[in-house]
Design a protein that fits this description.
Blueprint: H1 3-16, H2 35-46, E1 55-56, E2 58-63, H3 71-80, E3 86-90, H4 110-118, E4 122-126, H5 146-152, H6 158-179, E5 184-187, H7 209-229, E6 235-242, E7 260-266, H8 276-280, E8 286-292, H9 302-312, E9 316-321, H10 334-338, E10 343-344, E11 350-351, E12 354-355, E13 363-365, E14 374-377, E15 381-386, E16 396-402, E17 408-413, E18 424-431, E19 441-449, E20 454-457, E21 461-463, E22 469-474, E23 484-493, E24 499-509
Helix pairs in contact: 5-7
């Protein structure tokens, strides 16, 4: 065949499998959320699709009426010439004591937060809540038994009454922000898998089902009160586990109660943060809700942190650096952190009264009209384009599998792709609710490039039957990126029985 004719056919083929881009909408768990809150959540969810300005920056301003001020933000601006995209306050000083437990809740920082919002910034609220079991308040780090834990959400107990009083006072502060049109990234009951706060683990890395359930009930109680009783429609709920402890997802209160999942990551080597892939399995946008060095005073370099995000944690939608000894101001690399092309700061969020543009990564495969050349390996049926489930549009790719026959299955396409100038490849997957997958199923997004069909993959990630899991593959450093011979998803079960099915949808690149 004439080489010029062959080249034209290849170009036509490549363009035929890359449909035009149209942004899909991602909605918060509270269907009654204010329109601004819905718009912000959709905007945040789409940040990883950008080439630049793809992670919102943040900083912690302190504890309301104790240490909170605007100095952290202002000093960051003096050092970098930019203000963080998000500024955070904590309403509770749970380490103090008070006869009336609600005296330990303060939201006087709202005045500064409103001004920050009006100048184009985002807001986060966290809570170091006092222990409602204590009769004199305080007790942030006073351990409680599982029986005491259960009493907290019992309205007839003294602990339950103190808990309700705390919630009411916090809700007053959040209501004040809603009255001013402020959307809040709300991060309650954080680091629950650590043993240092009263609401957390019963002991170091304890596998305690009663504790897991108590936490879930407590979180849901707070959510239901704020959402259904107080009608707070300005909150985006952030579930934030500790990176340095296990059981990060064991406390997860459920998809109907969480908008964003995250990690509090205090580490000395940002390339070794534990739990990123585990949190992605929950199918929610991911954030670094608190970050800083594990060892202070030795010159942690935040350049390493932003570089790790770019190379290993590309689905991150925001980071929030802590203050004091953990602050970028008191360590190294502050300019590289806040001035990186990936970072979104206060002046880059809004275009006038509208949020900056939302971009979807170009869609490579959506399976809306056909299987688009995909085939399977070790599958018992399919693949088919079906309407059983989808992430974007109305259809996805489905294949049946027999869990007892083999432990691995694959869906793949060998049409050929050119992903030059792209940085990230993504696919959304799940497995069916039927069949016994034993200890679980994992999935791995992979490509094979060049004449040697060199293999690259994004690593194994646990998937489930309820929510879609995003698989991501970093394309930086991939050789022959212009000549991708195969793209596929490899599924693996450790053990299993009966029949099931796997699904793939919305494969994108940016």
């Amino acid at each position: 065949m004439n080489k010029s004719i062959f080249s034209i056919l290849v170009v036509i083929l490549l363009f035929s499998i890359i449909p035009s881009v149209s942004a899909h909408t991602v909605s918060p768990v509270n269907s009654n959320s204010t329109q601004t809150t819905k718009d912000i959540y959709n905007w945040l969810s789409h940040l990883p699709n950008r080439s630049n300005n793809r992670i919102l920056s943040g900083a912690f301003g302190g504890y309301s009426n104790v240490t909170f001020s605007m100095s952290e933000a202002n000093n960051i601006k003096n050092a970098t010439n930019v203000l963080p995209g998000m500024y955070a306050c904590d309403y509770a000083r749970g380490w103090d004591t008070a006869t009336n437990i609600t005296d330990l809740i303060d939201y006087s920082c709202n005045a500064d937060l409103k001004a920050y919002w009006n100048n184009g910034g985002m807001i986060q609220i966290s809570l170091h809540l006092p222990n409602p079991v204590n009769t004199n308040g305080g007790g942030l780090k006073t351990a409680i038994t599982n029986a005491q834990y259960a009493d907290i959400i019992n309205d007839s107990t003294a602990s339950g009454q103190r808990w309700n009083a705390l919630l009411s006072k916090v809700a007053d502060g959040l209501q004040d922000l809603e009255n001013s049109g402020v959307t809040v990234l709300f991060r309650p009951l954080h680091e629950m898998n650590g043993e240092w706060f009263w609401w957390g683990a019963s002991s170091y890395d304890s596998n305690d089902n009663s504790r897991f359930n108590n936490y879930i009930n407590l979180y849901r109680d707070m959510y239901n009160y704020f959402t259904n009783v107080r009608k707070l429609d300005n909150l985006l709920w952030v579930y934030s586990a500790d990176a340095n402890r296990n059981y990060k997802t064991a406390y997860y209160p459920g998809d109907r109660y969480v908008d964003i999942v995250g990690l509090d990551a205090y580490v000395d080597n940002p390339n070794l943060i534990n739990g990123y892939n585990e949190m992605l399995t929950l199918g929610k946008p991911f954030a670094f809700a608190e970050v800083g060095p594990q060892t202070t005073g030795v010159g942690f370099n935040y350049t390493d942190f932003i570089n790790a995000i770019k190379s290993k944690y590309q689905e991150s939608i925001y980071f929030l650096a802590w203050n004091d000894a953990w602050s970028p101001l008191n360590n190294q690399g502050i300019g590289n952190l806040y001035n990186d092309l990936w970072t979104t700061n206060q002046n880059e969020i809004w275009n006038g009264s509208s949020l900056s543009s939302i971009t979807d990564a170009p869609t490579l495969f959506d399976f809306e009209t056909s299987v688009q050349g995909w085939t399977g390996a070790n599958i018992s049926g399919g693949p088919w384009a079906v309407s059983d489930w989808s992430v974007n549009g109305s259809k996805s790719l489905k294949a049946d599998v027999i869990l007892t026959n083999v432990s691995s299955y694959a869906l793949k396409n060998t049409t050929g792709l050119n992903l030059s100038a792209k940085t990230t490849l993504r696919a959304r997957v799940k497995h069916a609710s039927w069949g016994n997958v034993g200890n679980g199923m994992t999935a791995k997004l992979y490509i094979k490039t060049g004449s040697t069909w060199t293999w690259y993959d994004g690593g194994s990630v646990g998937i489930n039957a309820i929510t879609p899991t995003t698989l991501a593959l970093n394309l930086n450093g991939v050789t022959n990126i212009h000549d991708i011979r195969e793209i596929g998803i490899e599924f693996y079960t450790f053990q299993g029985s009966a029949d099931s099915a796997v699904f793939v949808d919305y494969i994108t690149s940016n």
